[in-house]
Each structure stands twice: as C-alpha cells, then as structure tokens.
Amino acid sequence: MQRILGLVRACVSDYNMIDPGDRIAVGVSGGKDSLLTLTALARLQKFYPVPFTVEAITLEMGMPDMDFAPVAALCDRLGVPYTRISVPVYDIVFQDRQEKNPCSLCAKLRRGSLNTALTERGIRKIALGHHYDDAVETLLMNLLFEGRIGCFQPVTYLDRTGVTQIRPLLYCHEEDIRRVVAREQLPVVKNTCPRDGHSRRQEVKELLTELEGRYPDLKQKLFGAMERYPLYGWDKEHLER
Fold first, then answer.
1. What are residue 163's DSSP bridge partners?
2. Residue spans of alpha helices (H) in 15-60
3. Which of 46, 104, 154, 202 could make an SS bond with 15 (beta carbons 3.0 to 4.6 A apart)?
4. Does residue 241 lie within any of the structural domains?
5. Residue 59's domain spans which residues?
6. Has residue 92 been placed in a domain?
C-alpha cells in the first residue's frame, strides 16, 4: 500500500491533479480499481501538502445481486461520506431496449447520471480508477479499431459540465492493484453485468498478454511513447504550475 500511495502521490503531483480546497468525488463501482482509488485518496489527504476532501458516489444501476453494504462499511472506516444513487440502467439497456451492443448506451447513461449527481452536490472534480494498463489498452484500442493515436488524458476538463476528471492510479499497474486490494481486504463487489468480460477491451487485454509473452517490456514502451510523444494532456513539462 505504501508503494501505491507513493505512485498516486507522484501522479497527482506530476499532473497537478489537486488544487487547495478541492472537494473530490470518487466514482465507486465496487470494482478493485475504484475501491483502491477511494482508499488511496482517503489516506493521501492526511499527509498531502495541498488540503482536499474526499467523498464516494455509487450509481446503483439495478444489476442483480450487487450488494454495496460492504462499500458503505469501508467508507465509514475511512471517514468518507458515501452517496448511493439508484438509476434504472439495467432495466433500460437489457429489459426495455434489449440492446445487442449495450456497452455504449450503458456508458452514456452512467456518464449522464454521474454528472447530474455531481452538479446537484456542487462537486467539480471526480477521481476515476483508470490505471497504467487501462491507458495502454486504450491506446491500442484506438489504433486498432479507429485508426488513430489517442488515449484519455490524466486530467480532463469537461467544459459542458464544468467537471474535471482526474486519474490518480495512472502510474499503478493492474497486477499491483489486484495484489494490494486482496492484501487490504477491500470489499470488491462482483460485476454481474451480462456483458462483463465480453468486450473489445477484453480482446485487447488478451492480445497484450499474448504479445507480452514475446515482448516482456511492451506495455512499458507503449506507455512511455504516450509520455514522450507526448499525447495531448500528457506533457508534464509544459503543465501550468
């Protein structure tokens, strides 16, 4: 956990993710990445030189057999306010519309519901759980499926909503996240979405695993390429201090 906190602190500092007095929401899906983001920021706020506060928001989308009570208990232990919002995403996507390709609509509904929740609470910054491996996978997905070189930014300002997204786990590898989450016994909520594990991202994840068998430093080179190129928003040297 100390190593994760060190990586999170470095990432937050490198990309100026936190300003004094920030009220930061963490979108907690119940997955390992969002739970570690929440835990890391809750601990970081105790010693980071820039003062900020953290709270958690979960969109309960109606997926069957997903219990967020253990997440609520974790928030109590961390001293973090926790808001749970029910939105009928499952019913709309899988019952009413019976989408053959549901991921796009689901993502759109989730983004809209989350932005509404943030606006209602006067929150202008949200921490997302995207990590090192996610960034590499996204770069490859954009190249393979869209024919372009691109990835999400470490810090993204959404001018339509006035919300800033930050990704403090960006220096953390998925393998390390999985190990720390198990060691810390964070209450992962199993995703019961019918499409979980059957997406293009999963295809790319498996492709990268196969390629790494031959080229062990492949992810490191791809991530480094994004920083050196640099992609828009990834240039640490020219960020305003």
1. 158
2. 32-44
3. 154
4. no
5. 2-234
6. yes
Distance of CA 215 to the CA centre of its chain: 27
Instruction: Specify whether the CB–CB gap between 126 and 163 falls below 8 A.
Output: yes
The CA distance from 155 to 157, in Å, is: 7
Residue 126 maps to a domain: yes
> What's the longest Cα–Cα distance across the chain?
50
Task: For residue 82, give the CATH number of its domain.
Answer: 3.40.50.620
Report whether 152 contacts 166 (CB < 8 A): no
Q: Which residue has the tokens 């999400």?
A: 152
Q: Is residue 239 part of a domain?
A: no
Report the run of H or E that residue 205 belongs to, with start and end: helix 200-212
**Rounded to whole angstroms, how far apart are CA atoms 29 and 35?**
8
Q: What is the pLDDT along the chain (241 residues), one digit of tens a residue?
A: 999 999 999 999 999 999 999 999 999 989 999 999 999 999 999 999 999 999 999 888 767 778 899 999 999 999 999 998 877 666 676 666 666 666 666 677 777 778 888 888 999 999 999 999 999 999 999 999 999 999 999 999 988 889 999 999 999 999 999 999 999 999 999 877 666 666 788 899 999 999 999 999 999 999 999 999 989 999 887 665 4
Distance CA 173, CA 157 (A): 24
Residue 119: left (phi > 0), alpha (psi -120 to 50), or beta? alpha
